[in-house]
Design brief:
With about 425 residues, the chain is of the alpha+beta class. It has helices spanning about 1-20, 140-150, 180-195, 200-210, 220-245, 280-285, 295, 410-415; strands at about 30, 40, 50-60, 65-70, 75-80, 85-90, 100-105, 115-120, 125-130, 150-155, 165, 175, 270, 275, 305-310, 325-330, 335-345, 360, 375-380, 390-395, 400-410, 425. The strands form 6 sheets. The protein has a 6-stranded mixed beta sheet. Strands 8-7-4-10 form a 4-stranded mixed beta sheet. Strands 15-21-17-18 form a 4-stranded antiparallel beta sheet. Helix 1 (about 1-20) crosses helix 3 (about 180-195) and helix 5 (about 220-245) crosses helix 6.
Length: about 425
Amino acid sequence: MQSILTTMQGASLVAMRRGLRGLGPDNQTVALFENLMDSKTLFLTANSTTIYNFIWLNIKDGPLVIEVPPKVLGFIDDFWFKWVGDVGVTGADKGKGGKYLLLPPGYKGTVPEGYFVLRSPTYNQWLIFRGFLEDGKTAPAVASIKKNLRIYPLVKKDNPPKMNFVKVSDKYFNTIGPIDYSFFDDINQVVQEEPTASMDPDTLGMLASVGIVKGKPFKPDARMKKILTEAAAVADITARAISYKSRIPEAYFYENSAWGTPFIGGSYQFLQDGVRNLDARTFFFFMATGITPAMSEKMIGKGSQYAVAFVDKNGDPLDGSKTYKIHLPPNIPAKNFWSFTVYSSQTRSMLQTNQQYPSVGSLTKGMVVNPDTSVDVYFGPKVPAGKENNWIQTNSGEGWNTIFRLYSPTKPWFDKTWRPSEIELVK
């Protein structure tokens, strides 16, 4: 069980790669959500308010050039889901666009000038970045991405291959891996493909204890398969318990509140005084994909911040058959925009209802804003009268949770002089 909780981030990226390779080859294939991501996509806690782009990168054959478009926000994570570097607004190009050079493990060749250089400990990695709506439209950002994004081997810089942009909006697209026996087959792929130095000896030793060893076939006998199958079931239950009702005081933004942080302790590495909080790491990688310091650092006016809630004001799990309300006080502290998105507590992806996009926010057309600039948001199976544009639909009999996102958050969010209400049951 512990081997799953420790390495689920690697298996998560195997599932991501499986989904992306179904669209085309590494490096040149871009999964582009031209019309935003909707609930048909199975993706851990994504949003439907930014223009996602996913690319699977492989640098086994040498350095890779990545020409990043302007006005995007993104990062690269290695195959163990460790941060390699940011691109775009929080990267070295500062949102102006630029050329990055991604170097493979142990690279000792010449590093040419004119690039923002990143080094990865693995050959495989995931590049994700987001474009943003302009006047409520995706077209300007999509056009810029298609015009400016180029990825090619350094040795082919004079004749780069053509990019393949695949429109995946409004299509079934699965990037979530199972937590069952097949988990071990997935994590074995990471171990076999990557340098031993890319992961710590203790983790590799834990995997070796169940038969996953680099350079050797993973062939458990019937007895071990039974043990691993049972361990996976327990690990899945454990991860849900850790995530949905954390006992860690630092998991919450406020005292006696349901609003929690995905980065418990404020560290993207889940470190507190040099000690890794294992439950915090499990919570994040069970619920989410993508890791970067920009998500956890207090950068006033830049990046993004997240607050997640699984229970209502009374501490009861959120029930899709009931109606709830959140009040956002005046002067919501987001310089760019804010949003709520609702997720299924089973799949951890956007909740599938009659609404294509299970979200509302400051970019929602027709949203009712109160005279004092405060906003009320509703959740439930039926829309409250006059609140059509302030409402997210839920399903009777299905549990859900929500993430409140702030893009370019301002000081009142960080000093907690502003806070959202708890999720209150509407009777």
